[in-house]
């Protein structure tokens, strides 16, 4: 009897080690999945990947697909095409969207076609996420046609590496996570009151002095400090390595040099750039600080231009983020140089904005002009609307959705990153024992956001370019907590960025995300599991 039971168990085990069907219900959900008549495709070690293009990016796509097939199924393609089964990757100008793709599965062929290698890459991501999440010898792909494209051109995630520094190995893993969710922009927040993290040759003290704080507050505004120096920065070579790693995965890195506020890192290094002349120190606790760059000192403008010149030499992105948020103007009100500059420029309080607010608009516009001469454009947080900003500015709406609506009314492009939906430093649970910044943002809420409702004004439809989730890191230290805060909420944001609103459905997302969660576990990402638990 024991023997029979053992052999039945072995039989079951060997069956479950064989054919398993692919499941095309992935995150983000493709726009259309149509079952077709015809034989299924069987993927096994003999399957060939045929890259019908000499394009280097397409060849890299082929390598990615090979790795993805192996990562969970364990199937290693051996380069032999015994049964003639082939996955063909090819460019096709008829695919409409720059990032769109079409997958056709029938008999001995899977074809992934895109207008660009980028589109083919997203098709590959869909195939990857369709694979079974267990070790198998072969996979059956039912005959189908998937035609897909993103709803928004901009799909981003921000990581604050200034409040806390993250290792290069994590940055790469973070980028891998973005690619898995069809996200195409990594917004890299590199400078803060609590630390300057980007090497700039012309101003070596930015990293020698500005990247180090003497100690860090314990917990949330306790007045107690850990008496432990903290620091870290990215060298130019490392930043270039990140740009390349991301570009290989069709992700643009947009660096942020936050100005004129959140600048204590720089002011500690170069106190002459502040209104009072200092001394200043790199901040040891969180918050908004009154000391910002002096906007009446020509040296400040020179500093900004020189820093931006080195930044654009590293980062090829069309957009450079120059912050603009949370800059108190109290020092400017009392600074003879700032007041003289207001006079010289003839700035007056107007349109409900103070003269100092207009001075900030002037400051941001100067940086924008400098970048525009080099073919780059600025993104700023929604405070930059508190004055007359140049056309060509893109606004990141964070204090809610009004910044985006106002930007669109003024004819400016906007990216929606509202705090009440997309601030991933917020709690995911009501009963929480962790020390985080506050707020309450369960994944359902993140998922439920629709940046452009059907009845939105035409200017909103034209100017809202996409969505972005932000991970600020005052309380987020290290890989495990970062992944806990990121996932599954990044997946929820990614589906809003990719899938048409009418096709979104939270119950379906939950089911699809439950499968993807197995891949997160495979990578060792300790993500929040609340979504997968049955609610009582
Ligand atoms: C921000 O959260 N200060 C943009
Ligand atoms: Zn000043």
UniProtKB/TrEMBL annotation:
Gene Ontology BP terms: carbohydrate metabolic process; glycosaminoglycan metabolic process
Positions of transmembrane segments: none
Residue span, Beta-hexosaminidase bacterial type N-terminal domain: 24-149
Classification via CDD domains: GH20_chitobiase-like
Catalytic activity: Hydrolysis of terminal non-reducing N-acetyl-D-hexosamine residues in N-acetyl-beta-D-hexosaminides
GO molecular function: beta-N-acetylhexosaminidase activity
Keywords, sorted A to Z: Glycosidase, Hydrolase, Signal
Pfam families xrefs: Glyco_hydro_20, Glyco_hydro_20b
Enzyme Commission number(s) from the entry: 3.2.1.52
Gene Ontology CC, one term: membrane
Signal peptide, first to last residue: 1-19
Superkingdom in the source lineage: Bacteria
Active-site residues (renumbered): 326 (proton donor)
Statement: the UniProt record of this protein carries the keyword Signal: yes
Start and end residues of each Glycoside hydrolase family 20 catalytic domain: 152-500
Family to which the UniProt record says this protein belongs: Belongs to the glycosyl hydrolase 20 family.
Record's protein name: beta-N-acetylhexosaminidase
Provenance organism: Prevotella scopos JCM 17725
């Amino acid at each position: 009897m024991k023997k029979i039971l053992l052999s039945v168990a072995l039989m079951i085990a060997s069956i479950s080690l064989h054919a398993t069907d692919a499941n095309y219900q992935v995150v983000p959900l493709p726009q259309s999945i149509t079952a077709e008549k015809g034989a299924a495709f069987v993927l096994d070690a003999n399957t060939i990947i045929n890259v019908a293009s000499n394009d280097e990016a397409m060849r890299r796509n082929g390598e990615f697909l090979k790795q993805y097939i192996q990562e969970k199924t364990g199937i290693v393609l051996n380069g032999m095409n015994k049964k003639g089964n082939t996955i063909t990757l090819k460019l096709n100008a008829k695919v409409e969207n720059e990032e769109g793709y079409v997958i056709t599965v029938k008999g001995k062929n899977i074809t992934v076609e895109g207008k660009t290698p980028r589109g083919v890459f997203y098709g590959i991501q869909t195939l990857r996420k369709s694979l079974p999440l267990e070790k198998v010898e072969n996979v059956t792909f039912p005959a189908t046609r998937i035609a897909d494209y993103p709803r928004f051109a901009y799909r981003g995630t921000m990581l604050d590496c200034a409040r806390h520094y993250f290792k290069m190995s994590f940055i790469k893993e973070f980028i891998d996570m973005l690619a898995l969710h069809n996200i195409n922009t990594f917004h890299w927040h590199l400078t803060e009151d609590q630390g300057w993290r980007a090497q700039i040759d012309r101003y070596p003290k930015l990293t020698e002095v500005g990247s180090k704080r003497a100690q860090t507050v314990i917990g949330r505004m306790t007045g107690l400090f850990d008496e432990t120096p903290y620091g870290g920065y990215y060298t130019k070579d490392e930043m270039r390595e990140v740009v390349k790693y991301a570009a290989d995965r069709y992700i643009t890195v947009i660096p942020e040099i936050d100005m004129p506020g959140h600048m204590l890192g720089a002011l500690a290094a170069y106190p002459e750039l502040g209104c009072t002349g200092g001394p200043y120190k790199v901040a040891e606790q969180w918050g908004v600080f009154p000391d910002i760059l002096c906007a009446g000192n020509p040296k400040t403008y020179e500093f900004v231009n020189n820093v931006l010149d080195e930044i654009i030499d590293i980062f090829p992105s069309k957009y450079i983020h120059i912050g603009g948020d949370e800059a108190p103007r109290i020092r400017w009100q009392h600074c003879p140089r700032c007041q003289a500059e207001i006079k010289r420029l003839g700035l007056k309080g107007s349109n409900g904005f103070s003269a100092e607010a207009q001075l900030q608009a002037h400051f941001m516009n100067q940086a924008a002009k400098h970048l525009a001469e080099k073919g780059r454009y600025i993104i700023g947080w929604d405070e930059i609307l508190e004055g007359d900003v140049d056309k060509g500015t893109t606004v990141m709406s964070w204090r809610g959705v009004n910044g985006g609506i106002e930007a669109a009314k003024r004819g400016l492009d906007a990216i929606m990153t509202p705090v009440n939906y997309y601030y991933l430093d917020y709690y995911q649970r009501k009963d929480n024992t962790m020390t985080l910044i506050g707020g309450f943002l369960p994944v359902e809420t993140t998922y439920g956001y629709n940046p452009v409702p059907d009845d939105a004004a035409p200017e909103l439809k034209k100017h809202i370019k996409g969505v972005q989730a932000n991970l600020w890191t005052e309380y987020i230290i290290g890989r495990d907590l970062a992944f806990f805060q990121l996932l599954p909420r990044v997946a929820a944001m990614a589906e809003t960025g990719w899938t048409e609103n009418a096709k979104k459905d939270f119950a379906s997302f939950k089911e699809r995300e439950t499968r993807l969660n197995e891949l997160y576990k495979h990578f060792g990402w300790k993500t929040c599991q609340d979504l997968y638990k049955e609610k009582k």
